[in-house]
Amino acid sequence: INQYMEVCYYRVLGVRQNASSVELRNAYRRLALRYHPDKNPHNPEQAKRIFQRIQLAYDILSDQQEREWYDRQKAEAEKAKAKETPPSPKNETTNHHQEDNGQSRTKTEQTKPRDSPPNNDDGINLFLYFNFTCFKGYGDDDRGFFAVYRRVFATICEEDRRFWNDPALPYEYPTFGWSNDSYESVVKPFYMFWSNFTTSRSYTWLHKYDEDTLRNAESQESRIKMEKENKRIRERAAREQSDLTRYLVTIVKKRDIRVPVTEK
């Protein structure tokens, strides 16, 4: 399945975008039966990856609320530039402590705000992490589920940190953690924070009217209208980024083996 199919859940299930719930269910059952690892003893690992992708697609499209959100974001996914290898997120560790097994682990990430944010920043392509081909297995190794998504969320915060303008408050966020972390002390705080995530990015680089245009406006009324348009653009971009991040959190939470079934 190519990069686009990894993002487009309709194509994963082989259905039209206006497919009914019955059509979705029938497609899921047919594919799940075909690609279940137990049915593919000669290539169980590949079957497992495909089976997981099919499960994810059905989980999203069978939920009416998530499907509506997904449909709104689908156009953005199609525009996202596919890359063969997901970008390497920035260093995530700043606070460490030694565990019983001798491993150095991050429990709370904390960084210092930068004085001036960059003029432009495309940021990490979150759409690459909406499928499960970006990680291999549920271990703590470099390509494992926990390492990959720990880096992803650390990168999001590192990018947002540059726009943090409140020197009175430290920029802190809970880490995604490791496979054997406690649900109550690590996992639950993580999802509570990220389920309500709001980006700090200014998105001033998306302004339709630059400072020179505003200064040379024909009238105060024209300037106000242009400023309102700039504000609308900023707020829309920030809202979309926040929604996309929170949506990724719901996808990850469904596959997080540390989360009790009753909490998913």
The number of distinct helices, counting runs of at least 4 residues, comes to: 9
Strand order, main sheet: write it out. Answer: 1-2
Range of strand content: under 5%
Distance between the termini: 28 Å
Overall strand count: 4
Helix content: 40-55%
- Poorly predicted regions: 1-6, 81-85, 91-120
Q: Quick one: overall form?
A: globular
Order of helical and strand elements: HHHHHEEEHEHHH
Structural class of the secondary structure composition? mainly alpha
- Main sheet overview: 2 strands, antiparallel
> Which value, in Å, is the CA radius of gyration?
21 Å
* Global mean pLDDT: 80
Brief characterization of the structure:
The chain is mainly alpha-helical and 264 residues long. The chain is 49% helix and 5% strand.
Could you explain how this protein is built, in words?
The protein has 264 residues and is mainly alpha-helical. Helix content is 49%, strand content 5%. It contains nine helices and four strands, in the order αααααβββαβααα. It has helices spanning 3-7, 9-13, 21-35, 44-61, 64-79, 145-161, 183-194, 211-215, 220-255; strands at residues 97-98, 104-105, 108-111, 171-174. The protein has a two-stranded antiparallel sheet with strand order 1-2. The two termini are 28 Å apart.
